[in-house]
Structures are given as structure tokens and as C-alpha cells.
Amino acid sequence: MRRVFVSALVLVPTLSGSLLLTVGCAVEERPGGRPPPAPPGVTADAGSATSVHVMWNRAPGDSEIAAYEVYRGRTKVKDVPGDEHMVDITRLRPSTTYVFTVRARGTSGDLGPPSAEVRATTPAAGPADRRPPSRPERLDGKVLGSGTVRLSWEPSRDDRDVESYDILQGGSKIHGVGGERTSAVVTGLRPGTRYSFTVRARDAADNVSPASAEVRLSTRPGADDGRGTAPTGFRAEARRHDGAYSVELSWLPPLVDGVVTEYEIELDGRPATTLVWGGAPPRGRASYDFYVGREAGVTYRVRIRAKLPDGTWGGFSVERTVTTGG
């Protein structure tokens, strides 16, 4: 093997804004292959007293991903196909905190670095419980674009607590959300395709409710603007400092399940820059500013879009117009 230096642009939040830095690290490369980068946006949530639901975003870049390896501590516990980005880790102990990481493996067999660590604590098992939660009612769905839908339902009831909800597509579990949630966003669907979804509730003892009534949705054909997955509350303003102008942006992340770690800014109809959060991405309003020059009276059109957890780009925000010195 030979050692290769890999660099990347990361966005590091500061008190006065955000600073774009170039960082690098040495990795081992096999002949004919380059290790894929670490998967971003890893999350872990208890699904029951003995299970944890782990999710992550597609590893960035152009590398073809053959599989993901999920680790509990230093022990590999799951191999997941490269087109999937979530898994349930079972046979865990109640009232225990676990640490998880995820690594991507390329088609040439090269294994990338581990993701950031995430922790999840399983709830107490409690007294013997064999009664499942009630069936989720009034499942409804909305198509957000050619590859995304949003599901919502009324909460289930349980003699203790609902710990999580399973999202099923055609009878197979494809997603999970915490028991306090009554909605989910499903991405990565095929355009112009009809899907059937159901939801079921799960308690801490791993009792599972009957599945909800089925909802059938057809994604929009072809590519579209995916407006339902666009950042909202987008603002843009020109600022002058030390004789130069910058454009200050702020926005709210799109409502998707998982963590958005990457955005693309488009200026005057062309991609201007890509932002990759090096630390924990903001869950609330995010901001970024960039230099545009020293000339006053110049008008710019700007908008932004997010890379969704499944690796596809969401819809663009509304477009804003700013003028330097205006």
C-alpha cells in the first residue's frame, strides 16, 4: 500500500461567522482504489430497551460505496449494503450507554476512516410487559417531489411509553423515529413510482403494535424542484467591511430525518461554493458569509440547497437579490 494525502473543505463555525478551512490527513491506499471518506451525519436513538437505531448520510464524494460497517465501540456489529443508510442494532442491554461509529467500504475493498462517535442510552426494561402499544391511526402522506414523501400519524397509546415508530414500505422496515415523533420524511425514492407505507409502534420491551392502515403515494415523474426538501426562511444581505463587500446568508435546514451536513450556494444561476460542516451542524438557523468584491452597485442573485441524508440534493430555496452598496 502507499500513503496518500487527502484534503477537504470544511466549514468551522466561529463567533463572528464561519471560516472555510482546508484540512488533510494521510490514509492508506490500495493499488487501484482510494478509501472513501467517513460518513457524515451519524445519529443513534434507542428503539427499545434492547435495540438502537443508527442512521448516517451517504459518504460524500464520487467514491462508489460497496458497504458500510457499523461498530459498537471497537467491535464491528453490522455490515450494511452501500445503498442503505440505517440499521437496527439489537440484543443490547437495558439502561446502558453505547458508542457507535460507521465506516464506508469502497467497491475495491478499501475501508475509509471511522465517522464521528455517537452515543445512545437504552431505557430501563421495567417490569414484565407483554402488552403492545395501540395501532397508529390516521396515517397520511404528502409527496414532496420526485424522490421524497412525508408521512404523519396520530400517536399510539401504551401502558408505559411508546419508545419508537417503525416506518415500513411494502412490509419491510426502511426507517425508524423516536416515540415522541408523529411524522417522518422518506427520501431516496424513485421518480414516477407508486409506494405503499405503513407505521407501527414499539415500546421499551420490544412489543410491536399492529401496523397502521396503508397509505399509497406516487412520486412525481422525472426531476423536479423538490421544494418540500428546500431550506426555508432564507435571507441574504450585502455587507461592507474594510472597503470590501460580502453577502451574508442565513436559513433554516430542510425538514428531513437525519442531519444535513452539506449545502450548495448558487450565485447568479451558477454554483458558487459548497459548505461542509466540520463540527456538529446547526439544528436551528444556520449562517454563512462570503466575499464578492469591492465594487458598489453590483446586484447578485443567490439561493441555496441541501444535500439530503441519502446523498441526493434537495430543492433550492427561494432566490434572493442583493446589491452591494445599495
What would your notes on this structure say?
The structure is a single chain. With 326 residues, the chain is mainly beta. The chain is 0% helix and 52% strand. It is built from no helices and 23 strands. Strands 6-5-8-9 form a 4-stranded antiparallel sheet, with no helix packed on it. Strands 13-12-15-16 form a 4-stranded antiparallel sheet, with no helix packed on it. It is globular, with a radius of gyration of 22 Å.
**Strands, count:** 23
Compute the separation of the termini in Å.
Answer: 57 Å
Give the spatial strand order of the biggest sheet.
6-5-8-9
Strand and helix order = EEEEEEEEEEEEEEEEEEEEEEE
Number of helices: 0
What is the overall pLDDT average? 84
Task: Supply Rg.
Answer: 22 Å
β-strand percent reads: over 45%
Shape: globular
Sheet bearing the most strands, described?
4 strands, antiparallel
* Fraction of helical residues: under 10%
